[in-house]
Amino acid sequence: MRRLFRGERPPPDARPALLAVASLMLVIVPMILLTSSGQKLTGIGLALAGPEEELPPLPPGPVESLRVEVEPQGYRVRAGVRRSDVRAQIGEVEQQELLAPDLPALQAHLGRLKALDPARRRVQLAPHAETDAAALVALVDALRQGPDGPLFPEVVLEPAP
Questions:
Q1: I need a labelling partner for 48 at 20 to 30 A (CA). Which of 33, 54, 80, 155 fits?
Q2: DSSP H/E element including 144
Q3: Is 51 or 90 the better-scoring residue by pLDDT?
Q4: CATH of residue 142
C-alpha cells in the first residue's frame, strides 16, 4: 500500500535517550561516592627555609628553647625554661633535660611543657644518623599530636650528624 501524503517525518524523540542517561547516573554516582574515600590521599606539609633565610621569631613565653634529640637508648628532651621565682633576673633560663625511653613517655613530658607554655608551637628535632624514614615520620606525628591533644605543630628538622 502506498502512502497518499509524503510529508516530512518528525525528528526522533530524544527523551528516551536522556532518560537512559539520567537513570545510569542515578546508579553510578552514588556507587562512586560510597566506594571512594577522600582519606586515601594524605600528605605531610613541608616548608624549608633557604640558606640565607631566618626562621620567624618565636612568640615570647616561659619555654625559650625546646629540642628533641633521637638517641639509641631513647629520646632526649632539652628545654630552656625561664625562671619564674621572685629573685630571678630577666633572661635567666633554667635548662631541663629528660631522657624518655619511648614515645608515650616523650609525649607525656612534652605535654607538661605544652601546659606550661600553650602558645609555643615549635620544637627542634635532631634525628640520629641511623633513624629510618618511617620512624622519623612517626616521631614527627608524635611531636605534633599527643594523646591529650595537639602538642607542637611546627617541627624543625636539624641535619643528622
A1: 80
A2: helix 133-144
A3: 51
A4: 3.30.420
Q: What angle do CA 51, 43, 33 make, to 5 degrees?
A: 155
β-bridge mates for residue 99, sequence order: 76
Cα–Cα distance measured from residue 81 to residue 93, given in angstroms and rounded to the nearest whole number: 5
Q: 110 with 100: CB under 8 angstroms?
A: no
Per-residue pLDDT, averaged over 71-89, amounts to 79
What distance in Å separates the CA atoms of residue 81 and residue 61, rounded to the nearest whole number? 9
Higher pLDDT among residues 74 and 46, named by residue: 74
Q: How many CB atoms lie under 10 A from the CB of residue 108?
A: 14
CA–CA gap between residue 113 and residue 104 (Å, rounded): 14
Query: Is 126 within the bounds of a domain?
Result: yes
In a domain, 67, yes or no: yes
Neighbours of 28 (CB within 10 A): 10
What integer pLDDT is reported at residue 83 of this predicted model? 75
Domain count, the chain: 1
Which is nearest to 67 in space by CA: 124, 110, 28?
A: 124
What pTM was computed for the model? 0.61
For 40, which DSSP code? G
